[in-house]
């Protein structure tokens, strides 16, 4: 899948990687180095006019970590627009709260594994 790369977001993505939240760091330790069934994830990946927290091109999967601010209506609405736009590009989005990642990482991992086992290369089912 061809992903449109916006060079204007390169520096912002770098800043986000350098200032990751605790939940992003915790989840990244489980995703990096092809630890999830051999799939290659990237963090703070610019896609079109957005930056997603984690992205796997082969799975066309974005994973978003939502902090407290994402509960605010204004931020929630922006998240919904972002998700709809990514879906139009053929990208599926899994969202997890910081609380889930920090306090229930096993279920977060299970959800990601379930997505991989259901929609990965060995299973051509589409969401």
Description:
The chain has five helices and four strands; from the N terminus they run H-H-E-E-E-H-E-H-H. It is 44% helix and 20% strand. 22% of the residues are buried. The protein has a single domain, classed as Endonuclease, Chain A. The two termini are 16 Å apart. It is an alpha+beta fold and 127 residues long.
Topology:
Blueprint lengths: L9 H9 L3 H10 L10 E6 L2 E7 L4 E6 L6 H16 L3 E6 H6 L1 H15 L8
How many individual domains? 1
Topology, number of strands:
4
What does the largest sheet look like? 4 strands, mixed
Whole-number radius of gyration?
A: 14 Å
Name the CATH architecture.
3-Layer(aba) Sandwich
Question: How far is the N terminus from the C terminus?
Answer: 16 Å
Shape: globular
Looking at CATH, the homologous superfamily is VSR Endonuclease
Placed side by side, the strands forming the largest sheet appear as: 1-2-3-4
Helix residue percentage: 40-55%
In the CATH hierarchy, what is the class? Alpha Beta
By DSSP (H or I, 4+ residues per run), the number of helices equals 5
CATH topology: Endonuclease, Chain A
Order of helices and strands: HHEEEHEHH
| Percent of residues in beta strands | 15-25%
Quote the average pLDDT: 88
Which parts are unreliable, with pLDDT below 50 for 5 consecutive residues or more? Answer: none
Sheet/helix structural class: alpha+beta
């Amino acid at each position: 899948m061809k992903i449109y790369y916006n060079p204007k977001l390169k520096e912002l993505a770098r800043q986000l990687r350098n200032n990751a939240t605790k939940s992003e760091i915790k989840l990244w330790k489980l995703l990096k180095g092809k630890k999830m069934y051999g799939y290659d994830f990237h963090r703070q990946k610019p896609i079109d006019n957005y930056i997603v927290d984690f992205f796997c091109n082969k799975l066309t999967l974005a994973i978003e970590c939502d902090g407290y601010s994402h509960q605010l209506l204004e931020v929630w609405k922006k998240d919904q627009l972002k998700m709809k736009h990514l879906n139009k590009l053929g990208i599926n989005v899994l969202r997890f709260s910081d609380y889930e990642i920090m306090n229930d990482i096993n279920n977060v991992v299970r959800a990601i594994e379930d997505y991989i086992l259901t929609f990965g290369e060995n299973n051509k089912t589409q969401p």
